[in-house]
Amino acid sequence: MKSLGLILRHRRYFAPAWAFMSLNLVYGTWAIYIPTIKAQLQIDKSSLGIAIFFMAMGSFLILPIAPKINDYLGCGKATTWGILALGLLGILPFIAPSYPFLLGGLFLLGAAQGFLDISMNATVAEIERRDQVTLMTAMHGFFSLGGVLAGLGTFAMAWFTHAYEHMALLLVLMILVNLFFFGAYKDITSEVKKESEFSLKYLKPLLLLGIISFVVMGSEGAIVDWSGLYLQEIVQLENQWIGAGFLGFSIAMTTGRFFGDGISQRIGSEKILALGAAVATVGYLGVLQDQFFWSISGFTAIGLGLSVVIPELFRMAGRQKTINPSKAMAIVAGFGYSGFLTGPVILGFIAEGFGLRTSYYSLLGAVIAVFFTAVLLITKPKE
To answer: What is the CATH number for 358?
Structure first.
C-alpha cells in the first residue's frame, strides 16, 4: 500500500494514474455492451470473435510504431495524444451501422489503446527510474479500477436509451479530467539508445516474459469479452447480473495491484508470477462449476491471480539495461497483444463449435502453462 499512498499524495504520480484508469474504463464499457452490440448487428459468436480480432490487430500493429513516436514526442506528451485518440475513436463501435463498420471502428480503437498502453507504461517506468520509487503495479491497479467503474456501469445501462449515449458521456469526461492533469507528466521523456546497440541476442531475456504476456493478456481479454456471455448462456443469469463476473474480476484485480508492489519487494518477481498463476488456476476451476456463487467467485479469483502478472512483466522488462524501456515494453506487449489477437478468435470458434464451457477449459490449461513457465524462471540460473 506504500505505492498507493505515494500516488494519492503526489500530483506527479496521481496524474498518470488517471491515464491508466481511463484506458480500462473505455475498454470495460465496450465489454459490458458486447451482448447489446452483438444483438443489434445480429452476428454470431465466431463473427464476434473476428471483430475482437480486429481490435487486437489494431493494438498489435501500432506496437512497432509507438516507441518511435515516444522517442520523438517524449512519452509524457505521447500519453496525452494517446488519451485524445482513445476519446475520439472510442465511440465508433457504438455507432456502427454494419458489421464492416464495426470491424474498422474496433481496429482504430485497438490502435489507440495499444499506443496509449506503451506510452503510459514508459512514462511510469521513467518516473520510477528518476524518483527511485516503485509504482508500476499500483498504476495498473488504477487501470483495474477503471474496469470496476465500467462494471458498475452495468447498473446505469437502464438510464440510457442508446448505448452510444453512455459511451459519449464517459469519453467527454475522460478527456477533460486527463487534460487537467496533463501538465504533471508532459515533460517526461525516456532515455533514447542508439539503434546500433540493439541485437537479436537482447530478445533472449525477454522471451519467457513474452510467453507469459502472450497467455495472460489473451486470458484477460477472454474474461472481458466472454464473461458476460458465459454467465448469460451457461450459468443462465438475468441480464442485470451478466456484468457481475467482470465486476468481481476487476475489483479483485484492482485490490491485488494496490498490494502487489509490496508483495513483489518481499518475494521477488518470479515467485509472484507463479503465485498469481496458481490463484488464477483455482479461479478457473470455480468458474467451471457453472453455479452463480462459484462462477462469480471464480472470476474474482482469476482477477486476483492475474492482477500482478502484467505489471510485473513490464517492471522486469524495464529493468534490463540493453534496450530503452519503451522498446523493451513494446516487445513484451507485442507478445501480449499477439495473445490478445489470436485468443478471442480461437475462443470464438471453440465456443461456436464446442460451446463456451469448452473454451474456458482451454483458458484453464493456458494459465496452468503460465504457472510452469514462472517456475522455470524461478529455477533458471541467474546470469
So the answer is: 1.20.1250.20
Please give the residue range of the domain that contains residue 289. Answer: 2-379
d(Cα 172, Cα 158) in Å, to the nearest integer?
20
Please give the tally of structural domains in the chain.
1
Nearest to 140 by CA among 200, 217, 196: 217
Model pTM?
0.74
Instruction: Give DSSP secondary structure letters for 9-45.
Output: H-HHHHHHHHHHHHHHHHHHHHHHTHHHHHHHHT--H
Give the residue among 308, 206, 186 at the shortest CA–CA distance from 255: 308
pLDDT higher than 90, residue 301:
yes
Count of other CB atoms within 10 angstroms of residue 170 = 21
pLDDT (tens digit per residue) in 152-198:
877 777 788 788 888 999 999 999 999 898 888 888 886 655 544 54
How far apart CA 345 and CA 26 sit, in angstroms, is 21
Instruction: Tell me which residue of 359, 345, 341, 357 sits closest to 46, measured CA to CA.
Output: 345
Average per-residue pLDDT for the chain: 84
